[in-house]
Design a protein that fits this description.
The chain is of the alpha+beta class. It is built from nine helices and four strands; from the N terminus they run ααααααβαβββαα.
Length: 221
């Protein structure tokens, strides 16, 4: 996950924690992400670059009129800064931060075939013993994995699937072939370290304070 997404998630987490609304914010954010996933019109509203930004913000304000203020402002900020397509990944990182703060480990088990309850429970027990934390696990079937399991914990991913092993093997074979055919290394001097601006760094994400209320600029719109 890009650094900016982790920072947006951290900003929302700190604001929700400061106002003692972690559970409420987590629930409402998850409900909105589910709605985006399930409702094509809402998904298009967030992702269509042809829509007028002011009209998009106005529509989201109406849709989120009854939502928690932190959640509403969070979605508006992401949308205004062109990061609405990263909402689901940012929400996963937010969930990871909440789980970490509360001593829980929330993860997704992805397998090629449906696990039985006993099989899933055995995996969960092993993770609990290894991590020393209680685990809340959801399950997902992905036939493309071919076999094995993929664990997703927030932005962290552990790929122990057959497909993942095959892809790593292909990559190692390609790298081995390239190494065997490569010529002698070139000698050159590295330029001075570029500034973040020179690297095209994205604008800094909002602070926790910025999520607590609408900005003056939003009010003018």
């Amino acid at each position: 996950m890009p650094v900016a997404e982790r920072m947006y998630a951290r900003a929302l987490f700190e604001a929700a924690q400061e106002h003692d609304r972690l559970d409420q914010v987590q629930q409402e954010l998850a409900e909105f992400v589910d709605a985006v996933r399930d409702v094509p019109e809402l998904r298009a509203l967030l992702r269509d670059p042809q829509l007028d930004p002011r009209a998009k913000i106005a529509a989201l304000r109406e849709i989120l009129g009854d939502a928690d203020e932190l959640v509403r402002n969070f979605v508006l900020v992401l949308t205004e800064r062109g990061r609405a397509t990263e909402l689901e990944e940012t929400q996963r990182e937010f969930d990871r931060l909440v789980a970490e703060a509360t001593g829980r480990l929330e993860l997704e088990l992805a397998t090629a075939v449906e696990l039985s309850d006993d099989e899933a429970a055995q995996i969960v027990r092993q993770i609990e013993q290894s991590s020393g934390r209680s685990v809340d696990a959801t399950r997902r079937v992905d036939p493309d994995l071919l076999g094995g399991v993929v664990l997703q914990v927030g932005s962290l991913r552990l790929d122990a699937s057959l497909r993942g092993r095959l892809e790593r093997l292909r990559r190692e074979m390609r790298e081995g072939t390239q190494s065997s055919t490569a010529g002698p290394p070139l000698n050159f001097t590295l330029p001075s370290t570029p500034t973040p601006a020179a690297l095209g760094q994205s604008p800094a994400p909002p602070s926790a304070t910025a999520l607590r209320s609408d900005t003056e600029e939003e009010e003018k719109h």
